[in-house]
Specification:
Elements lengths: L15 H16 L24 H9 L11 H14 L9 E7 L3 E10 L3 H8 L2 H8 L5 E9 L2 E8 L11 E13 L2 E10 L4 E12 L5 E11 L1 H12 L10 E4 L5 E3 L2 H23 L7 H14 L2 H4 L4 H17 L7
Antiparallel strand pairs: 1-2, 2-8, 3-4, 4-5, 5-6, 6-7, 7-8, 9-10
Helix pairs in contact: 5-7, 7-8, 8-10
């Protein structure tokens, strides 16, 4: 039966290939989720499942959940149109800022997205985010990232990242993830960069993270950050364990309902995980750009303080430790990644 309610008949005279093709289509329709692409811009219809387990693997999976990217890029005008649409609708807007956050799920894949208007001029954004080494300065701000070093391999630029728990940890206990880095588009009006790793912890795979930017008015820039990753049975059960224990009371940002007295109910579960990590990474990107060129060589200290202050605006979802403890931990980790070589592949 087709979408108009009419029965689809296959005449006896139809070729065997045609009959097999129609049968395959029917089977695919019965098991595959519906996916649609609007005419104006790409949109995902995903439904994520739980996937983390307490310990380094859990932290790594929760963290890398926030690292990923689409294989396509919107044209500059389409990116501007999408931001204008989000701004007019107020969809996913955080507090009073020009930050719009979305999260979506599917049975075997997860994706998040941030659209934002930032004060930095496009040329600065382009210079900073088109260099692999600058991305380690971004990633290390995240509370779960314990190490990051950029290096050149025969396959191109690579970021070796160690991810773990939300406290000081020896490198022997972190989970190592190797991201290939590439600049997909680098023009005077459009930048698209991508991080990608084929594997991750606890059965996860195909991690992608991308950042896209275009010039805006008054020396500002429009930025869009997206990520996605695939996961299997092991990751799904690990996430269920996490959400039943350490992550039981943690929430995201999207409003999914209201209480009896009219108070908003924010999303929990896997989407809550996605949204918290999406925002942590976006704020790391924003903090890095804001601190660039700080006088007296204080860019690192300023970036750390800026990131912590930015996350405290959303303390209900993002607070994990006090500011002095966070900064002390990060300064130690940054010094360590300068002196300790990353492990070899494999």
């Amino acid at each position: 039966m087709n979408r108009n309610g009419r029965t689809l008949r296959i005449e006896p005279s139809a070729t065997p290939r045609l009959r097999r093709g129609v049968h395959a289509f029917r089977c695919a329709q019965s098991v595959a989720p519906q996916w649609q692409m609007p005419q104006t811009h790409p949109t995902w219809r995903f439904n994520a499942r739980p996937f983390l387990n307490p310990g380094p693997g859990l932290a790594a999976l929760l963290l890398v959940a926030s690292l990923t990217a689409p294989a396509w890029a919107a044209a500059p005008d389409a990116l501007r149109a999408r931001f204008a649409s989000l701004r007019d609708a107020g969809t996913g807007q955080l507090l009073d800022q020009s930050i719009y956050l979305r999260s979506t799920e599917s049975p075997d894949r997860m994706q998040g997205e941030v659209h934002a208007l930032i004060e930095q001029p496009f040329e600065q954004v382009r210079q900073q985010l088109s260099q692999a080494a600058q991305w380690c300065d971004v990633l290390i701000l995240h509370i779960n990232v314990k190490y990051c070093r950029a290096q050149r391999t025969s396959a191109g630029d690579e970021l070796v990242s160690g991810v773990g728990r939300k406290f000081d940890q020896p490198l022997a206990e972190v989970h190592w993830v190797r991201f290939g880095f590439r600049v997909v588009t680098d023009r005077s009006d459009h930048l698209l960069t991508e991080l990608r790793s084929p594997t991750g912890p606890l059965g996860t795979h195909d991690y992608r993270m991308s950042v896209e930017a275009v010039p805006h008015t008054n020396g500002q820039s429009l930025l869009r950050m997206t990520y996605s990753y695939g996961y299997g049975t092991a990751a799904r059960w690990a996430m269920k364990t996490y959400l039943a224990t350490l992550g039981r009371d943690k929430r995201g940002f999207s409003v999914v309902g209201k209480t009896a007295n009219g108070q908003p109910i924010t999303v929990g579960g896997v989407r809550g995980v996605v949204e918290r990590n999406t925002l942590r990474y976006y704020l790391a990107l924003q903090s890095h750009l804001r601190s660039h060129g700080a006088p007296g060589g204080n860019a690192t200290q300023l970036a750390l303080q800026t990131w912590f202050d930015a996350t405290e605006r959303y303390a209900e979802q993002l607070h994990e430790m006090d500011g002095p403890d966070y900064i002390a931990m990060k300064l130690k980790e940054i010094q360590r990644q300068k002196t300790v070589a990353p492990p070899p592949p494999g």
